[in-house]
């Protein structure tokens, strides 16, 4: 069982920055691929960025060049640095941990943190 707790959301003006953090419980954080997803009102939950156990990253086209995902295995934490924020980045941001063992996937979600970009 992995518990994920996000923090760092809030209200920011367009063009501003925020850094989200996701702290994971347990001592097997390094075995999981980690990701950030977001869900705006009335829309589906979409991928924002992922970082694998090996440190490879992947981004949605809409955030490339503006957002950076990173992980600190010693602190059991994954981060999302968000720069040049736009109103369309407004959403609840969720942390995800995923692991595939013998073709069976196990996944966990955090409770989400609200990010609002508005003047």
Please outline what is shown here.
This protein has no helices and 11 strands.
> Largest sheet, described in full?
7 strands, mixed
Number of strands: 11
Based on CA inertia axes, which overall geometry fits? globular
Please, how many helices? Answer: 0
Helix and strand sequence: EEEEEEEEEEE
As a percent range, the share of strand residues is over 45%
Distance between the termini: 40 Å
Low-confidence stretches: none
Structural class: mainly beta
Radius of gyration based on Cα positions? 14 Å
Helix content: under 10%
Average the pLDDT over all residues and give the rounded result: 95
Word description of this protein:
A hairpin with a 5-residue loop joins strand 5 and strand 6. The chain is globular and about 45 Å long. It is mainly β.
